[in-house]
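Inverse folding, one chain.
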């Protein structure tokens, strides 16, 4: 009878494949690490089962992450300033790490991270939305040249709303009632830096209109 090839029985141990590695390269557009005030690049790999995080000098321009269990991960990379705040970022991407292999991904191009603003509102008279006959509010963001950057409607009872993807700069935040018998509005000025999250409170007051005199 001919020889039979070796096989693994049900109870026999099976050696697991070794971990993999991931090679990264990054650039900071358009001014580079020093011009953008970035000290460190933070790298995060996340899956349903594992998380890997490491930090590197921005000027290294690249790194290799070793000892990564094989699988598919979401890769997030940020550029942090000297106090550790992420001010540059890139859209997260999926990467696959194969066992016992040096894996690569395309160039990571970091650009300025937008800011996020939470708008909180209240009425000057101290009453709640329903007592003022207001059910909907409209929120708008204007830059210092009066260009509109954001406009959306929310339920007044929500008490707050968040706007993201705002670039650094000076803004006017305007909040006004929608379709209410008495028109309420208010605004506040804010200054945004790259990658920050801020809160702003807007007080709503009755909006008075000057009666027409009939003169033109």
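Residues assigned per position:
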């Amino acid at each position: 009878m001919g020889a039979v090839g070796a096989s693994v029985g049900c109870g026999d141990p099976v050696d697991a494949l070794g971990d993999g590695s991931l090679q990264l390269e990054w650039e900071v557009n358009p001014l580079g690490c020093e011009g953008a005030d970035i000290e460190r690049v933070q790298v995060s790999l996340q899956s349903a089962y594992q998380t890997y995080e490491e930090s590197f000098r921005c000027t290294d321009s690249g790194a290799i992450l070793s000892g990564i269990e094989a699988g598919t991960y979401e890769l997030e990379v940020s550029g942090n300033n000297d106090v550790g705040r992420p001010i540059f970022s890139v859209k997260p991407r999926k990467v696959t790490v194969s066992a016992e292999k040096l894996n690569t991904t395309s160039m990571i191009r970091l650009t300025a991270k937008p800011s996020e603003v939470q708008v909180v509102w209240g009425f000057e008279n101290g009453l709640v939305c329903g007592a003022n006959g207001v059910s909907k509010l409209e929120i708008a963001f204007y830059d210092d040249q009066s260009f509109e950057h954001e406009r959306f409607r929310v339920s007044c009872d929500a008490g707050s709303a968040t706007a993201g993807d705002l670039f650094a700069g000076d803004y006017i935040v305007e909040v006004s009632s929608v379709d209410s018998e008495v028109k309420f509005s208010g605004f506040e000025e804010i200054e945004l830096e790259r990658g920050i999250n801020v809160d702003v409170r807007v007080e709503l007051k009755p909006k008075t209109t000057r009666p027409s005199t009939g003169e033109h």
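The chain has two domains: 20-112, 115-206. The mean pLDDT is 91.
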